[in-house]
From TrEMBL:
<dbReference type="GO" id="GO:0016887">
    <property type="term" value="F:ATP hydrolysis activity"/>
</dbReference>
<keyword id="KW-0770">Synapse</keyword>
<dbReference type="GO" id="GO:0034504">
    <property type="term" value="P:protein localization to nucleus"/>
</dbReference>
<dbReference type="InterPro" id="IPR027417">
    <property type="entry name" value="P-loop_NTPase"/>
</dbReference>
<keyword id="KW-0472">Membrane</keyword>
<dbReference type="Pfam" id="PF06309">
    <property type="entry name" value="Torsin"/>
</dbReference>
<keyword id="KW-0325">Glycoprotein</keyword>
<keyword id="KW-0539">Nucleus</keyword>
<dbReference type="GO" id="GO:0031965">
    <property type="term" value="C:nuclear membrane"/>
</dbReference>
<dbReference type="GO" id="GO:0005524">
    <property type="term" value="F:ATP binding"/>
</dbReference>
<dbReference type="GO" id="GO:0019894">
    <property type="term" value="F:kinesin binding"/>
</dbReference>
<dbReference type="InterPro" id="IPR010448">
    <property type="entry name" value="Torsin"/>
</dbReference>
<comment type="subunit">
    <text>Homohexamer. Interacts with TOR1B; the interaction may be specific of neural tissues. Interacts (ATP-bound) with TOR1AIP1 and TOR1AIP2; the interactions induce ATPase activity. Interacts with KLHL14; preferentially when ATP-free. Interacts with KLC1 (via TPR repeats); the interaction associates TOR1A with the kinesin oligomeric complex. Interacts with COPS4; the interaction associates TOR1A with the CSN complex. Interacts with SNAPIN; the interaction is direct and associates SNAPIN with the CSN complex. Interacts with STON2.</text>
</comment>
<comment type="similarity">
    <text>Belongs to the ClpA/ClpB family. Torsin subfamily.</text>
</comment>
<dbReference type="GO" id="GO:0005788">
    <property type="term" value="C:endoplasmic reticulum lumen"/>
</dbReference>
<protein>
    <recommendedName>
        <fullName>Torsin-1A</fullName>
    </recommendedName>
</protein>
<keyword id="KW-0256">Endoplasmic reticulum</keyword>
Length: 234
């Protein structure tokens, strides 16, 4: 093969590779790569890895698979996971991320914030607020299906929570950017005592843990949210 023909052929392949997104996405991570999600695979993952959390499993499976399969969601998906330390909130966030992007938490489209690590100084709240908003705006502009996980929400300054709230609403777009395909996951210890109280009441009255319904927890959590300003539930 002549060098010139070989060069032209390679250039042709490369142009095709770069201009044909599906081909490019076979070799590199793409935002559009996972516009669909296998509900069965997510269910299998939740069933085989996450224990003792029948309510979380059901809500997460329905919410995440329903949201991803909706081509035009009216608002971003917002999940708020509550419970004591070590109950699996980060663990389940990882499962969600892995089912949407192969790289899971390491994906360029998954962003994890830890309140005490990323926003430690109350005196810098205005700066954090600007940085956080431009981070969210920039990443959603680059990939509509961006995932933002906020750990330690109960330790997050109320001003920063207010900075995130506009992105969670029913806006078609904010300053030219649509957030309707994004996913926000909030992890918090807030309400953990109330959750434990409900579980203990069920146990004391001889009922199975699996008999606890979401409405039993919703009431407990709404009381707790009312008393706690550091929550997106308010
Ligand atoms: N329900 C669960 N099922 C299976 N494994 C679990 C569960 N809960 C916790 N684990 C295991 O414990 C580890 C620690 O849990 P994880 O970090 O998810 O807790 P957390 O609720 O996020 O705690 P924190 O509030 O301290 O951040 C997980 O990586 C996982 O291996």
């Amino acid at each position: 093969v002549e060098p010139i023909s070989l060069g032209l052929a390679l250039a042709g392949v490369l142009t095709g590779y770069i201009s044909y997104p599906r081909l490019y996405c076979l070799f590199a991570e793409c935002c559009s790569q996972k516009q669909s999600l296998s509900r069965d695979a997510l269910q299998k993952d939740l069933d085989s890895k996450l224990f003792g959390q029948h309510l979380a499993k059901k809500v997460i499976l329905n919410a995440v698979s329903g949201f991803i399969s909706n081509p035009k969601p009216k608002k971003p998906l917002t999940l708020s996971l509550h419970g004591w330390t070590g109950t699996g909130k980060n663990f389940v966030s990882k499962i969600i991320a892995e089912n949407i992007y192969e790289g899971g938490l390491n994906s360029d489209y998954v962003h994890l914030f830890v309140a005490t690590l990323h926003f430690p100084h109350v005196s810098n709240i205005t700066l954090y607020k600007d940085q956080l908003q431009s981070w969210i705006r920039g990443n959603v502009s680059a990939c509509a299906r961006s995932i933002f996980i906020f750990d330690e929400m109960d330790k997050m300054h109320a001003g920063l929570i207010d900075a995130i709230k506009p992105y969670l609403d029913y806006y078609d777009n904010l300053d030219g950017v649509s957030y309707q395909k994004a996913i926000f996951v909030f992890l918090s210890n807030a309400g953990a005592e109330r959750i434990t109280d409900v579980a203990l009441d069920f146990w004391r009255s001889g009922k199975q843990r699996e008999e606890i319904k979401l409405r039993d927890m919703e009431h407990a959590l709404s009381v707790s949210a009312f008393n706690n300003k550091n929550t997106v539930l308010q």
